[in-house]
Amino acid sequence: MKYKLPGGRPSLLTKILLAGMLFLTFAGTSSADPRITVAGGYQIHHGAVPSEFLDAALARRLGLRRSRGGMMFTVSVVRLTPPGGSVRATIDLRARNQRGGKKPINLQEIHEGGAVSYLGELRVANGETVIFDMDITPAGEARALKVRYQQAFFVD
């Protein structure tokens, strides 16, 4: 499912995505941020934030649920060489908890201005760690980039 939002001033979705990415950027303390993977000339931003960050109307429009234990998973793929910027990609995402239980996530491609992002939702329990395995093939590339990322979740 693709969404193309009108241009002009920053939309609520842009503000939400920016807030989520800023949260992901500043939430860690390590200089080597595990939510960013650099591979094959691309920088891949990935991670999950509480779905409660979403405005209720926007969540309904995107088909995402806002709830305790609900997380919004985001992925964006940025080309490091000119012309740079975010690019479309095919993303094969598999998620599981540490006990091997699968965590289904369906990603939606979102277009905002000139940027492309992928959003999905997942449910987590307090203290649960989820391992994300992604095969990401940027548009125009023949080979997939392999990314493994894990994140611990604490739900109040």
Task: Describe this protein's structure.
There is one protein chain. The protein starts with a strand and ends with a strand. The strands form 2 sheets. Strands 1, 2, 3, 4, 5, 7 and 8 form a 7-stranded mixed beta sheet that branches. A 3-stranded antiparallel beta sheet has the order 6-9-10, with no helix packed on it. Helix content is 14%, strand content 44%. The radius of gyration is 15 Å and the shape is globular. The protein has helices spanning 12-26, 56-62, and strands spanning 2-4, 36-39, 42-50, 70-79, 85-86, 89-97, 108-112, 115-123, 129-138, 145-152. It has a single domain, classed as Domain of unknown function DUF4426 (Immunoglobulin-like), CATH 2.60.40. A hairpin with a 2-residue loop joins β2 (36-39) and β3. The protein has 156 residues and is mainly beta.
